[in-house]
Automatic annotation (TrEMBL), chain B:
InterPro entries: AAA+_ATPase, ABC_transp_ATP-bind, ABC_transporter-like_ATP-bd, ABC_transporter-like_CS, Oligopep_ABC_C, P-loop_NTPase. It comes from Fusibacter ferrireducens. GO terms for molecular function: ATP binding. Transmembrane segments: none annotated. Residues 7-252 form the ABC transporter domain. It holds the Pfam family ABC_tran. This is ATP-binding cassette domain-containing protein. Belongs to the ABC transporter superfamily. CDD domains: ABC_NikE_OppD_transporters (cd03257). SMART domains: AAA. Keywords: ATP-binding, Nucleotide-binding, Transport.
Automatic annotation (TrEMBL), chain C:
SUPFAM superfamilies: MetI-like. Pfam families: BPD_transp_1, OppC_N. Keywords: Cell membrane, Membrane, Peptide transport, Protein transport, Transmembrane, Transmembrane helix, Transport. The keyword Membrane applies. The keyword Cell membrane applies. It is a multi-pass membrane protein. This is ABC transporter permease. Residues 118-308 form the ABC transmembrane type-1 domain. It comes from Fusibacter ferrireducens. It is found in: Cell membrane. The chain crosses the membrane at residues 50-71, 122-145, 157-176, 182-206, 230-250, 286-307.
From TrEMBL, chain D:
InterPro entries: BPD_transp_1_N, MetI-like, MetI-like_sf. Keywords: Cell membrane, Membrane, Transmembrane, Transmembrane helix, Transport. The keyword Ribonucleoprotein does not apply. It is found in: Cell membrane. This is ABC transporter permease. The chain crosses the membrane at residues 12-30, 99-120, 132-153, 173-193, 236-255, 275-301.
């Protein structure tokens, strides 16, 4: 029985906050492949995920984990040398995995799923005014024209916290700061009236004070427009602030998924707890930080068993042989690690995770 | 114990461009760095923190003010011998491992480039031995010397960058955001490496960064810089727990901790520059508590002092 | 389905559930990607079938051009051949078994003239290309690297760039009496500028990269920064310019010959040959004297142009996908 | 914006002055026997010296320069020596300039219209048939020396289309061939650069956002990519003018069009210094004007330049 049946079968025990919502997007055993320098590599290895209406799901992972590729495959924005090899992406009545032609993708791009990108400096057309670039989305997806469309743009600019929208309408991107430009990019995404908003590391390129403002803005817009948000980031601090649920990705697969309290206070996959333990915020002065050995795998390596095995000092022999299935820890908490198998020896988590655990129990 | 002052910066000002489009990047900055400590310099992008690092390295010319290294003035015109001295004793680690190594040269040349310049080696075999020693001290295998940079991951390349500075046996290393371009799991490796090197080789760091939590973990003393001016400077825990300047408090409130319970209801203080009335009374660089300096007008200084009286330090 | 049933069904033996010992270098190795710049460049280049074919054509052509005189029973390019019987010059003989490309209006063998003409043109093109590259790198690197020099040379460039090069070329060849050296000198003087600007723009981009900053912090002298840090990045640009120098040189030589400033008639060159062909082109039967030089010129110029551009594309890391 | 243009115009004049002076001095290096044309051997040493003296060629260089510029301001470009002795240069040029102007401007206009259209469609149907055909055409035109295929154009088109070989001002049919040859060459340049700049724009990040916005590929191509590709294209205009100038020299003499192109070739061969001097001045002025036009167009297309008051990055 593969992993997703296990998730579906246990849905009836979900906590009430998630239970009310229906999964508006279900991804099952998605495999995305690239050909790079003559060889085909799999960036996503049978990842499965269900997204519930109105929730805020964070996807955490390092470079090479495939988190960006995962969301790009939802919108058909994969690079020329990449393609969805197998698996299904069920969204309303469509299976996005089968979409090939631009005509299909236009049914969902913007209208259903909109996206905010990482680098505000290059996401906007430098030679077009801000107003025109937002207006394009308003005209396309809200069917407004002329004066009405312009007013709609003013409203949206105001909603994303841009002052004096009338004056700003005719200004160009280079006259805006990084934070303001990111607000425009968010305005464009929201103007498409999407169901799902994918934010691909929206705050990574910004300073910490502006980062906090943008996170707050996305939270407000989520409740105001009833959006379901997928938040991609490698910053666990940001995840703790914004996410209801967290999916941890490593080498193209979702190795652990659960409510944010479960992931932070009771991480089960060795990678998740190692990632938490190595954060300087939790480090004790004078003592060395808990550091994960080795380097994140690049896509050239064909992965046998658990991809994290090579870097895990407490890896089991089986980790190098067989790929771990999902183990259920609670109704909403699953992890792909043989440690959860009752035959596996007990492994205590890094000391720092215990500390974090006690502090949260208070 | 009397700490030896390694570096002293007095009223340093650095500006770019002339007349009409003159941009002052660093505006009258004062701080000292003592031997064997890690001095954190934290600020947002465009605050001038990198410019200060480059001014010390003599890459950027200084407009006014002085930089003393072991008592000798090293900014502005200096003689050849002193210049050699500065090159050998002050080294720099760069932010982006992908851009700070010469892709078309072997690791062997990259690491020993400094040796070639300063002739600090007897013969070829001595140079080879020095390169291998440097690679081993940063946790890389000696046979990597014959490879090219593009064959390594981000973390490994950053360690090569560190090896390149160690081969010169420097006393002060200016680390300009050394880990912000690295993956999370690699950061801890480089931080631990830098701390080990500090204890084994007695190095001193000027650690420039925008990530406050990293600075808190690694620094002994921290200075917060905003728009070219250092607004507050203190021993690390004193600053993080008893910050007085509104900008520092704004920055600290923006740090997101990996702890959902506290994160969900964290209030974020927005810093508003207009709260100061510096047009009425210029701010001065004053010591509000031993080793705790702040940039404030007299009126503000009194207000901060009252707020500080009740606070005591609890070591986390 | 409970835990217990699940793992029995998968018949995994329990011994696998013991710790494996940790292997440090394996964890470093997984980050290793065997990308190498030159290997990928060559791979991408050889994927372009047309370019590879033309590369072969060029190699064959170059080899043949320079070994042609050594081949058996080859005629001399400048010797006038007479019919042994009538002792008359073999004027305008159409291509036949003896004169493979026929003869020209004064009885010289066109086949050997074309190949010796090609030799001359290739040498001119190569010398101009070489001059362009050497001057381009030396002045371009200094112009790009040293900020104080930048102001001065940019002004010089603005002035020099505005004199239409064709006119300078004409003036120079006129002043200096046509000859191979004059041609090389005139063409070099007018063409070094665009290469130098290309190098300067590249260096300005590379100059502020962090690895150059690092070299400066280590006290590396400018001389070594240029040779070790900058020039290796210019190789693909140099190869492209060298490849394009030859078609440009041939084109200019044909043009100069047309307006009477090309090489003297006694030196066989592609320009002279085309010119001679042009004078007779109106008469149908003598048109071969225009076709053969034209075809050889087109072959050489297209081959070098396409191969040069294909190499430049292959050398662009963005295409190493 | 205006300040930027005025500054650029001022710099253009300085460059023009420098260019003219350099060419003036370059001309003085010409071998002197050319001044006498075929009467060289008839005169003896003293007579020749007297004639050169009369032409002011023996004065020190700066005197000659001042004399030249005084004349220039009054619009007197001196008189032709060997081409049409004693005839003021301005008179000779007045008759010839219209022909070159017509040939140059119309060929550039045609090249811009068809070249941009070809470049755009090649970028749109990238790596498909249209792109392949276009690339073959561009490679052929830019690789093979124009001096070679102009011959074949003249040879075959005259016979196929029954067009007259040489240019005749009152026979309209003879206009077609030279114009076609000129436009075919500069057209390839525009097509190539337009395609290259559009392909560059296609790889930029903001295209990804435009796609994510749900815009169709056609909308992205015209509203974003093409519009932005015009900025670098404006810089190609001056180069194409320079290209057209050198092209006109050849075509005008090939089809014997009485324009200033063929005149320049002849006057150099005849070593008629004042005439060459004037022609070089005209050509330099055209190319400097072209550069200025390129800058103005770029500032017009790219709002960022308008705000940089201290001038473009020339």
């Amino acid at each position: 029985m593969n992993s997703d049946e296990m998730i579906k079968q246990d849905e009836k025990h979900l906590p009430d906050q998630i239970k009310k919502a229906m999964p508006i997007l279900t991804i099952e055993n998605l495999v995305v492949k690239f050909n790079l320098r003559g060889r085909s590599l799999s960036a996503i290895r049978e990842a499965s995920l269900s997204l519930y209406k109105g929730e805020s799901l964070a996807i955490v992972g390092e470079s090479g984990s495939g988190k960006s590729v995962f969301t790009k495959s939802l919108m058909g924005l994969l690079d020329a040398n990449g393609w969805v090899d197998s698996g299904t992406i069920q969204y309303k009545t469509y299976d996005l995995a089968q979409f090939k032609k631009e005509k299909d993708w236009l049914k969902i791009r913007g209208k259903e799923i909109a996206m905010v990108f990482q680098d505000p400096m290059t996401s906007l057309n430098p030679l077009k005014t801000i107003g025109k670039q937002v207006r394009e989305a308003v005209v396309k997806h809200q069917g407004l024209k002329g004066r009405e469309a312009t007013n709609a743009v003013y409203d949206i600019l105001e909603n994303v916290g841009i002052d004096a929208p009338r004056k700003r309408y005719n200004q160009y991107p280079f006259e805006f700061s990084g934070g303001m430009r990111q607000r425009v990019v968010i305005a464009i995404a929201v103007a498409c009236k999407p169901e799902i908003l994918i934010c691909d590391e929206p705050t990574t390129a910004l300073d910490v004070t502006i980062q906090a403002q943008i996170m707050e803005l996305i939270g407000e817009l989520q409740s105001k427009y009833g959006l379901t948000v997928i938040y991609i980031t490698h910053d666990l601090g940001v995840v703790a602030h914004v996410a209801d649920r967290v999916a941890v990705m490593y080498a193209g697969d979702i190795v652990e998924i659960g409510l944010s309290e479960e992931i932070f206070y009771d991480p089960r996959h060795p990678y998740t707890s190692a990632l938490l333990a190595s954060l300087p915020q939790l480090g004790i002065k004078g003592e060395p930080l808990y550091a994960i050995k080795g380097t994140p795998p690049n896509l050239f390596k064909k992965v046998e068993g658990d991809a994290f095995a090579f870097r895990n000092e407490k890896a089991l022999k089986i980790d190098f042989v067989k790929r771990p299935p999902y183990f259920k820890i609670s109704e909403t908490h699953y992890a792909k690690t043989w440690l959860m198998d009752e035959r596996a020896p007990k492994v205590d988590k890094p000391k720092i995770i215990e500390l974090l655990n006690e502090r949260s129990a208070k | 114990m009397k700490r030896e002052k390694l570096l002293e910066v007095k009223d340093l000002t650095v500006a770019f461009g002339k007349r009409k489009n003159r941009f002052v990047a660093v505006d009258g900055v004062n701080f000292n760095i003592y031997k064997g400590e890690t001095f954190g310099l934290v600020g947002e992008s465009g605050s001038g923190k990198t410019t200060i690092g480059r001014a010390i390295m003599r890459i950027n010319e200084t407009d006014s003010g002085d930089i003393y290294f072991k008592g000798q003035k090293i900014n502005g015109k200096i003689d050849k011998k002193l210049d050699r001295e500065v090159i050998k004793n002050i080294q720099m680690i760069f932010q982006d491992p992908m851009a700070s190594l010469n892709e078309r040269a072997k690791v062997d040349y990259i690491v020993s480039e400094g040796l070639y310049n300063t002739k600090l080696y007897d013969d070829e075999s001595d140079r080879k031995r020095k390169v291998e020693k440097a690679l081993l001290s940063v946790g890389l295998l000696p046979e990597f010397a014959s490879r090219f940079p593009h064959e390594f991951s981000g973390g490994q390349r950053q360690r090569i960058g560190i090896a390149r500075t160690l081969v010169m046996k420097p006393e002060l290393i200016i680390a300009d955001e050394p880990i912000s371009a690295l993956d999370v799991s690699i950061r801890a490796q480089v931080i631990n490496l830098m701390n080990d090197l500090k204890s084994t080789l007695g190095l001193t760091y000027l650690f420039i960064a925008h990530d406050l939590s990293v600075v808190r973990f690694i620094s002994d003393r921290v200075a917060v810089i905003h728009k070219g001016q250092i607004v507050e400077l203190a021993e690390t825990e004193e600053l993080y727990q008893n910050a007085v300047h509104p900008y520092t408090k704004g920055l600290l409130s923006a740090i997101s901790m990996p702890d959902p319970k506290t994160e969900k209801n964290r209030q974020f203080e927005k810093y508003d520059k207009s709260m100061h009335h510096y047009e009425v009374e210029a701010p001065k660089w004053m010591e509000i508590r031993p080793e705790h300096w702040v940039l404030a007008s007299d009126e503000e200084f009194e207000r901060y002092k009252k707020a500080l009286d009740g606070k005591v330090l609890n070591n986390r | 389905m409970t835990q217990r049933m699940k793992h029995i069904a998968e018949d995994i033996d329990d011994t696998l559930f013991t710790f494996a010992e940790y292997n440090q270098s394996a964890s470093e190795e997984i980050g290793y990607s065997n990308y190498s710049y030159w290997q990928s460049t060559i791979q991408v280049f050889f994927k372009n079938k047309v370019a590879v074919f033309l590369l072969m054509v060029i190699v064959l052509l170059l080899a043949f051009t320079f070994i042609q005189p050594l081949l058996p029973n080859q005629k001399l390019p400048t010797k006038i051949y007479n019919d042994p019987v009538t002792n008359m010059q073999y004027r305008n003989v159409a291509p036949n078994s003896e004169f493979w490309f026929g003869t020209n209006s004064i009885g010289q063998d066109l086949w050997s003239r074309i190949w010796s003409g090609t030799r001359t043109s290739l040498i001119i093109g190569f010398m101009v290309g070489l001059f362009e590259v050497i001057v381009g790198i030396v002045i371009g690197a200094m112009w790009g690297y040293m900020r104080k020099l930048d102001r001065v040379i940019t002004e010089i460039y603005n002035v020099w760039n505005n004199i239409p090069t064709t006119i300078v070329l004409i003036l120079l060849t006129y002043i200096m009496r046509p000859g191979i050296f004059t041609l090389i000198f005139a063409m070099s003087i007018t063409s070094w500028l665009s290469m130098t600007l290309l190098v300067r723009n590249l260096i300005v981009i590379l100059r502020d990269r962090e690895y150059n900053l690092a070299s400066r912090c280590l006290g590396t002298p400018i001389r070594r920064i240029i040779t070790k840090n900058l020039v290796p990045y210019l190789v693909s640009v140099i190869m492209l310019r060298m490849a394009l120098a030859i078609p440009t040189a041939i084109g200019l030589e044909v043009f100069l010959t047309y307006i009477g400033l090309g090489l003297p008639v006694d030196i066989p060159s592609l320009g002279n040959l085309v010119n001679e062909g042009r004078l007779l082109m109106m008469s149908e039967s003598l048109r071969y004297q225009l076709f053969f030089p034209a075809i050889v010129i087109s072959l050489i110029t297209i081959a070098f142009y396409v191969m040069g551009n294909a190499f430049a594309d292959a050398a662009d890391p963005r295409n190493h996908v | 914006m205006l300040k930027y243009i005025l500054k650029r115009i001022f710099r253009s004049f300085i460059t023009l002055f420098a260019v003219t002076t350099i060419v003036f001095m370059l001309m003085r290096l010409m071998p002197e026997e050319g001044y006498f044309g075929d009467s060289y051997d008839k005169l003896d040493e003293i007579q020749r010296e007297a004639i050169l003296e009369g032409m002011g060629l023996r004065d020190p260089m700066h005197i000659q320069l001042i004399h030249f510029y005084k004349g220039l301001i009054k619009g007197d470009l001196g008189t032709s020596i060997t081409y049409r002795p004693k005839v003021p240069v301005t008179e000779i040029l007045a008759k010839k300039i219209p022909y070159s102007l017509w040939l140059g401007l119309s060929s550039i206009l045609i090249a811009i219209i068809f070249g941009l259209w070809m470049g755009i469609s090649m970028a749109q149907h990238k790596d498909r048939l249209m792109d392949g055909v276009g690339t073959f055409y561009i490679v052929f035109i830019r690789a093979v020396p124009s001096a070679v295929y102009y011959l074949f154009l003249q040879l075959y088109l005259t016979s196929w289309l029954k067009l007259p070989i040489l240019f005749d001002v009152d026979e309209k049919a003879s206009f077609f061939l030279p114009l076609l040859s000129m436009s075919l060459v500069s057209l390839a340049g525009y097509a190539m650069w337009m395609r290259r700049y559009m392909v560059d724009e296609l790889n930029k990040d903001y295209i990804r956002l435009a796609k994510a916005k749900g815009l169709r590929q056609k909308e992205i191509m015209f509203k974003h990519v093409m519009r932005n590709a015009f900025v670098p294209m404006a810089q190609y205009l001056p180069t194409s003018i320079l290209f057209a100038i050198s092209g006109s020299l050849y075509i005008e003499s090939l089809y014997s069009i009485p324009g200033i192109g063929s005149l320049l070739v002849e006057s150099i061969q005849r070593q008629d210094n004042p005439l060459v001097q004037a022609l070089v001045l005209i050509y330099a002025a055209i190319s400097i004007f072209g550069l200025l036009m390129g800058d103005v167009l770029m500032a017009f297309f790219d709002p960022r330049i308008k705000f940089e008051t201290q001038g473009g990055g020339r």
